[in-house]
Amino acid sequence: MSSKKADIKVNLENLSRHYGSVAALQDFSLEMTTGEMVSLLGPSGCGKTTVLRILGGLDPNHQGKIFVDGEDITGLPSDKRNMGMVFQAYSLFPNMTVAENVEYGLRVRKINHEVRRKKSMELLEMVHLSHRGNAYPNQLSGGQQQRVALARALAISPKVLLLDEPLSALDAQVRVQIREEIRRIQLETETTTLFVTHDQEEAMSVSDRVGVMNAGQLEQIDSPAVLYNKPKTAFVASFVGVTNRIPAEIDGKGRVRVLNQKIDLSKNSRSAQEGEKVMALVRPENLTLADEFDSESKPGLVITKSFLGPLTKLGVDLGTENLVYINMTSQEARKIEVGNRVALKITSEELMVANG
Question: Quick one: the chain helix, strand, coil %, rounded to 5?
Answer without folding.
Answer: 30, 35, 35
